[in-house]
Amino acid sequence: MGITDLRTDHTVTLTNLAPGSTYFYRVRSTDSQGNGPQLSVIRTFTTSGQKDLTAPVISDVSLNSGFRSGKITWKTDEPSNSFVQIINGIGSILSFASATIVTDHSITITDTTFMPKGAVNYQVIISSTDPSSNTATQSSQTLTTLSTPDITGPAPPTGLTIQPGNSALHLTWDANTESDIASYTLYRISGSDTTEVQSGLTGISFLDGAVFNGTTYAYYLTALDTAIPVSNTSGKSVVVSGVPSTATAPSAPAIIAPLNSVEVSVKPILAINNATPGRGGGTLTYTFAIYTDSTMTQLLTSKSNIAEGATNNPTHWEVFDISLADSILLEDGVQYWWRARASDGTFEGTWSTPASFIANKSVPTAVLEPETETVGLPVDFALAQNFSNPFNPATHIQYSLPRSGEVTLIIYNILGQKVRQLLNNQTQSAGSYTIEWDGRNRIGNPTSSGIYMYRIEVKDNTGEDVFSDVKKMVLVK
Fold first, then answer.
1. For 163-212, how does the pLDDT look when each residue is reduced to its tens digit (9 = 90+)?
2. What is the CATH number of domain 161-244?
3. What's this model's pTM, rounded to 2 decimal places?
4. Following CA atoms 59, 65, 71, 72 in sequence, which dihedral angle do they give, to the nearest 10 degrees?
5. Domain covering 58-144, topology
6. Does domain 382-475 have CATH number 2.60.40.4070?
């Protein structure tokens, strides 16, 4: 199943699945410049064994009137189809339907035969049916068409600014104050050429990554309104220009370990030195990526928004996937290549020099410890407060073991229900450990905002409990 339009939020609805069955899936994406496709790891979901008997809930109904036209939009709380009936004053009915299964619904009516000139009232009946044939209907809406066409365009956008980055330019602008603004269109000027970079922009920012360092680019905006059947376009905004450069983005981080095809565990820790912020400054986060080939074209997995570390706890990522058996993602005896880069929240820095390692299940799971020459092994068992806290979307949990033990670490919600098990009786030697929780539950879905508890339990080699502790953390979205 493929979606060809460019977006950052992706949703696909699958239908006709068997009840009570487990399915495996993965996703892939290619950007506007043809980079990719990048593949996700394989994940699973299980369909319910019970038939859905609940109708969708219709909300956020909006009627936008035009001249001899109209647009009806609404939302449903589950993917459903779209159906609209328009009834005039003598009982004649005009119907529109879309079989596409979505949660955001939109139908535009431009039937000038049914809709005469002038302001006319129409009763609107909307309904949506989910894949289990449950239907919801709402019939209390009235659409009144305009008496004359809307031919007034919005004001030109204001406040257009540009921030250069590494092979990228970030543009922001002020939101238009008119109530009928639909979208913005961004244009790029390079030399004597003017190109439409992106239409249909509903936000007030855009990151243009299709540019080259050292070249000057200029931009302007126009705004479109919601007039039906034809949108009105504003005049041009002011023109701004910028030159992308490597100096404006974070530097490439340096890899600490693993290096040079060294053999590591099948759940290794990848560690780097911190990057230097670019001219824009900002707090840096990091992305790690692992590939199955030395050309870095076959992505196996990646992890973004990793918090910056410190001298005795460098920036790192332990490679595992809680959705897989034993959380082990890597294959025994296979060579992998990896790299990392920093982000200041707007721009991505350049990738580090690649390194490689060989996964070996006979090598113990990696432990990221403070430098023993200056810190030494922990004296007591301890569970530290997570960082960052509050957090979104990920946080890190640190704990210390003065001697080896079997460690279990579980996330609970405020009701005491188990959300995610990060460790399950995992044998670990003495040392200080850091583990990340990405804010997802046991089946890989993002959890909601709220208070969560994390509990650690440690047993010795005889199975006797030797340490336990619980702390709170807050997820804010």
1. 888 888 999 999 999 988 999 999 999 888 899 999 999 999 998 988 99
2. 2.60.40.10
3. 0.56
4. 20
5. Immunoglobulin-like (2.60.40)
6. yes
